[in-house]
Amino acid sequence: xPKVPLPxxxxxxxxxxxLTGCGSEPAQDLDDTVLTGVQAAGxxxxxxxxxxxxxxxxxxxxxxxxxxxxxEVAEAAGSDAGPVTGDFPNTVDVGTGYLVFVNNxxxxxxxxxxxxxxxVCSEDLSISNRVLTPGAATLHVARGTGDGWVVTRS
Length: 154
What we know:
The chain has helices at 6-20, 30-43, 50-53, 70-77, and strands spanning 47-49, 60-64, 96-103, 106-114, 118-119, 131-132, 138-143, 149-153. A 4-stranded mixed beta sheet has the order 1-7-8-5. The chain has one domain. It is an alpha+beta fold. This is Lipoprotein. Residues 1-27 form the signal peptide. Keywords: Signal.
């Protein structure tokens, strides 16, 4: 078997890593992705489509606000099979809201949003009215105070 020089193997390995994506940038954080979508929607037509913003499967999205009882959130977002299971955010921080994405009756992903940047909790809605489905997954974005945005159901 012929010997291949070490520099040639190194170049081949490096090219292989680049072609397979091992050397590419890490995926953007969901919190940043949602905030960027909110900002872009606010500057454009004011409509934020969660389906276009997220790049994973989900069946429901729930707006979770400070002080929400996660047991009530799990029940409101659940199905006939029962309440949603998985890791819900801690709702103690009064300056933070969440978009909890549910797939197959389990928490799939959670976007954490500082309310000063993207206030998803400005509306006084019951938890059941904060459950969004892909067919109704558009949110309205309007200028808030300072550099922030107010995000409401469309």
